[in-house]
Amino acid sequence: MSVTDSSQPRALLRGPYRHEALLTLPAQEAHVSAARHFAADLLETWSVPASERDSAVLIVDELASNAAQYGRERMTVLLVLDHSTLHIVVSDSGMAVDRRRPDVAPDEHGRGTGIVQCLAQSTEVRQSHGGREVRACLRCSA
Prior knowledge:
Layout: E1 2-6, E2 19-26, H1 32-45, H2 50-70, E3 74-81, E4 85-92, H3 112-119, E5 122-128, E6 131-139
Antiparallel strand pairs: 1-2, 2-3, 3-4, 4-6, 5-6
Helix pairs in contact: 1-2, 2-3
């Protein structure tokens, strides 16, 4: 597990940000709770209000769950707080997946991205040869 907390922006996002932190974990279900706790603790340290923190932690949980399920080797969680927006970027080393899987009952899986889209002001998915990156942005009054 690797964690960095810095005031310097990463190449993933550009701009002068107040806070940013990056967590790298193996892409395994067992590590989703570490991603969730990382986000919750960090956002509390950054004085993000509880209601906004809860939404952000739920987004991290859903995106990390997907990354653990479909990623191969690793997943990363990047949190960047500027003056009015929290950027959540979860990356994994997996390939694109078919959204409709006939072997999985619709009530069991598939609502995570809908939850993220409902909570976030914007979402974006990028696929590359190295993996997938999902970005979600939340307004934040911290």
